[in-house]
């Protein structure tokens, strides 16, 4: 994330996280460190994985004290190993102690998502299918989680409800059917917007193609039906496969030939990457 992105989109969220952790004061830190003392602490990796979110980690400390200095020995997207020293953080010891948990929460979460995404993206290597995330993100964490997906080798689906048209089962129900939903979307949406619609069977697929949908999401369909759907949609619409996709079951989808595979698991089920701040001392 660059400085402009951070200031426009992330600073308020990071400050909110800090305020959640420090309502009036850090009573523990203030009891053992009543006045300014310069110090440093090491960021240590405790398991192998992909690192993501270093700028966010850094920004936590900068928002507490802009004079905090961090030297990184890696960059986002690097594969890091258990025991590796990733950074040295220097500054007011009170800031290092008070910002520790919030900074690590962001970095561990984002690195966990990048690591999990990379594992699945590697399974798709060599195919023409792109791996997408979803909107199944932690509230107020979407900008960080979707960034981590990109670092891990995935691609971002729409960022929010204003970002694109995706007609799902309940939208189709509200409109009265597949054709009606696509027709109404075409009439309402700007011409520059693509229209994607979710289908659950081949009959719905045929309706969506006849109505002129740009992207067809094949939701929880059988492998055989998805293969047939890809054939029917070829040259008419792009295809996306969706529905409880994880690293344990994605192998069955690789040879179907869809343009995209979306997985909510990238952001809602990836474990954190274990990281720690250690060896704090005065300098």
List the helices and strands and how they pair.
Blueprint: H1 3-21, H2 27-32, E1 38-45, E2 49-50, H3 54-64, E3 69-72, E4 79-80, E5 85-92, H4 93-123, E6 130-132, H5 142-151, E7 165-167, H6 169-175, H7 178-188, E8 195-199, H8 202-211, E9 215-219, H9 223-233, E10 238-242, E11 260-262, H10 265-268, E12 275-282
Parallel strand pairs: 6-11, 7-8, 8-9, 9-10, 10-11
Antiparallel strand pairs: 1-5, 1-12, 2-4, 3-5
Average pLDDT number: 96
Assembly form of the protein: single chain
**What coarse outline follows from CA principal-axis ratios?**
elongated
| Beta-strand residue fraction | 15-25%
Please count the beta strands (DSSP E, at least 2 residues each).
Answer: 12
Helix content: 40-55%
Q: What are the secondary-structure elements, in order, as H or E?
A: HHEEHEEEHEHEHHEHEHEEHE
Structural class: alpha/beta
In short:
This protein is an alpha/beta fold and 283 residues long. The protein has helices spanning 3-21, 27-32, 54-64, 93-123, 142-151, 169-175, 178-188, 202-211, 223-233, 265-268, and strands spanning 38-45, 49-50, 69-72, 79-80, 85-92, 130-132, 165-167, 195-199, 215-219, 238-242, 260-262, 275-282.
Question: Would you mind describing this structure in some detail?
Answer:
The protein has about 280 residues and is an alpha/beta fold. Helices cover about 40% and strands about 20% of the residues. It contains ten helices and twelve strands. The strands form three sheets. Strands 6-11-10-9-8-7 form a six-stranded parallel sheet. Strands 3-5-1-12 form a four-stranded antiparallel sheet, with helices on one face. Helix 9 links the parallel strand 9 and strand 10 (about 240). Helix 1 (about 5-20) packs across helix 3 (about 55-65) and helix 7 (about 180-190) runs parallel beside helix 8. The radius of gyration is 23 Å and the shape is elongated. The mean pLDDT is about 95.
